[in-house]
Amino acid sequence: MGTVLITGCSTGIGLATALELARAGHRVIATMRNPAGAPRLAETAAAENLPIEIRTLDVDSDESVRACFAAIESPIDVLVNNAGIEVHGSVEELPIEAVAQVMNTNYLGTVRCIQAVLPQMRERRSGCIVNISSVAGRISNSPLGAYSASKFAVEAISEALAGEVKSFGIRVAIVEPGIQNTRMAQAITNPEESLYPHTARMSGLFRAALANPVPPEVTAAVIRHIIESGTWKLRHPSGPDAEPFLAWRSGQSDEQWVDWSAQEDAAWYDSVERDFGMNARTEGATKTPGS
Q1: Residues 275, 247: contact at Cβ < 8 Å?
Q2: CB neighbours (10 Å) of residue 115?
Q3: Which residues does the annotation mark as catalytic?
């Protein structure tokens, strides 16, 4: 079993992955911005005597990344880039600072960690880099445009990286979760006021999906499979809705996709119920006559 460094382990997929891998016998270096503010992982590791070492790492900071990786004496066999934030809002209304922040954490944070670990992997001619993207890294719609942009960027850099490092025996994998029961997904269910209807729509869609929640442990199991199987497959959708969403989008032209998002509310809600069997309407909303 190897040494795995995971970013963003305070909650959600990162926490679940740290536990999944440690319980399977891997040595886990679990990182997060503020370990004192998120004690659950440390408490669980102590209670179960798991091989988890918790370290401070802020992927937004060049210096934090350099310091964290330099302090790790043993070779890192696997890097799981999971740290991420979610922002949502229309392109017009989302503050530019929020757009910059989501790109810095989700995309540049991933690149910082890749650059920190690659030299040792390249010299050893072995390693595995797992980048957590999203179905939103392949499908972009409002109000998740900025978040999707950061995940599209993760997909692009991962694809380029995979071609660069394969000859050095380094595997690269992209994991694309659908809607799963994480703090980020739950935040989308609480819409803010907007000039555009898409924020309330997406809130309803996530609320309907989370009525039958898919736990982050589903993605943790996918990550473990990637690490242990030795697969060279690049993209790995995760969760029961991921592949159906991707297939549904790929069956439409770009113009059809734009038109789907641009529908009036009643038609949009009807299409979600028809295509996905989910009632995404907000409380008090009703179907249109005859629907």
Answers
A1: no
A2: 13
A3: 147
CA distance 8 to 6: 7
Helix (H) or strand (E) segment spanning residue 170: strand 170-177
Q: 3-178+214-239: CATH homologous superfamily? A: NAD(P)-binding Rossmann-like Domain (3.40.50.720)
> How far apart are alpha carbons 62 and 197 in whole angstroms?
38
Q: Give dist(CA 66, CA 47) in Å, integer.
A: 31
Stretch(es) of the chain classified as CATH 3.40.50.720:
3-178+214-239
CA separation for the pair 119, 130 (Å, rounded): 16
Record the pTM: 0.94
| Beta carbons of 2 and 26 less than 8 angstroms apart | yes
Q: Sign of torsion, CA 44 46 50 51?
A: positive
Distance CA 80, CA 124 (A): 18
Residue 27 identity (one-letter amino acid): R
pLDDT tens digits, one per residue of 179-207 = 999 988 999 998 889 999 999 999 999 99
Instruction: Encode pLDDT of 155-176 as tens digits.
Output: 999 999 999 999 999 999 999 9
Tell me: the pLDDT tens digits for 74-132?
Answer: 999 999 999 999 999 999 999 999 999 999 999 999 999 999 999 999 999 999 999 99
Question: Which residue type, as a one-letter code, is found at position 222?
Answer: V
**Rg of the Cα atoms in the chain:** 20
